[in-house]
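Protocol step 4 of 5: obtain the predicted structure for the target chain.
Materials: sequence only (see below). No template structures provided, no constraints applied. The aim of this step is simply to have a reference model before the mutagenesis design in step 5. Sequence pasted as it appears in the construct record:
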Amino acid sequence: MTYQFVVFSFISALSSLILSLFVSALVRGRRNKKKAVAFFHPYTNDGGGGERVLWCAVKAIQEDRPDVECAVYTGDHDASPDSLMARAVDRFGVKLHYPPKVVHLCKRKWIEETTYPRFTMIGQSLGSVYLSWEALCKFTPMYYFDTSGYAFTYPVARLFGCKVICYTHYPTISLDMLSRVRAHTSLYNNDALIARSIWLSECKILYYKFFSWMYGMVGSCAHLAMVNSSWTASHIEKLWGISDRIKRVYPPCDTSGLQELQLERSIRPATIISVAQFRPEKGHVLQLEAFSAVMKKLYADEPRPKLQLVGSCRNKADEERVQNLKNKAVELNVEEDVEFHVNVTYKSAPFFPYIFLYILINLARLLGGAVAGIHSMIDEHFGISVVEYMAAGAIPIAHASAGPKMDIVLEEDGNQTGFLAEDLREYSDAILNVLRMEETERLKMAGAARKRASRFSEQSCCLESKPALGE
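Step 4 output (structure tokens):
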């Protein structure tokens, strides 16, 4: 009995201590709250569309509210105010008015997928709670702005007295994910073993339903939720139930410089470009297989096209993925016709913002030489690369789902702006269509695509988002 009493007393004392530390951290944070907007973006070196949104949002706030300090929570320990400001220009052509404050995070491992071999989604989400606690204890802003999709951090930010704003690129879980598990479809986020098993699929459905309920609860804590596409908006409205606080703001696409490129370009040999991070969901293997199928269908007198895979690597796993793709090209016997360009940067002209110098090998030069751009991610929430293809004059061949299908590759003034495809045959047919187009037909389609791309310019994004940021 005495032993049980001692254990109970110890647990009670420990619980009281933890609660006391928890409350004192909240009180201290609320008391020291800064007149600032702090962006929760643990990976400021991912090189994707999410990072572009981050820098454009920072720039918009610096212009619209110069009296409010901008800070960035990052787990990149080599990041500094000056290096991040330089990165925004070099990588995305976004020139900030002054360097943001940098708040370094030491617990980023808790949101890394390698930390959770199983139940990765819920593990990373709960890990983000711990990471946001560290962030808010170090720097408590008036406005907490999540640009990376960590909805489980919103209740934490509200406890610290912050107004919560988010820019959601895609829902952590979607109704489409549930439907694929029910249909026993094997994909990058649904293991083949689970897809083949009725029992395991039912267990995963229960897991997804529970997670959807949790995701809806934490997401509803946002005071303002900006979403990047019609597809994302429809899912977030159903999951979070805050339709009155959701605003659709297309992600900023730097189309002004790309639209300066000539529509006329060499088609001997023709170049097909693919711009995407080297991640499993981007479907690079399908692109290689479709390209290989095209090569087999070419007539003897037709020139062999080139496929350029352009993207960034976040870590060693991505680098290994690139090597596997190179091996796949060898297996398909197209290694001589496929080029890999890893971590290509944008370069801004010093006196002409957003017009890119054609020096060395950079993304603008590659886009300017391509007749088509290929995209193959299923349920791509928006698809900035597709817009960039269109602005640059490269005819898009995109996956027939989500953002590309609902918002981007639509008719402009009654003219076709590109192709949508779902499987190997449709992709290879679309590539052949582009390669065999008459020049006048290609220029007409490329011109219509360029006009449509102007709807998604950085200027359009700022005009739409500034009123929302001021609410």
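Step 4 remarks: Confidence is low (pLDDT under 50) at residues 346-361. The two ends are 59 Å apart (CA to CA).
Proceed to step 5.
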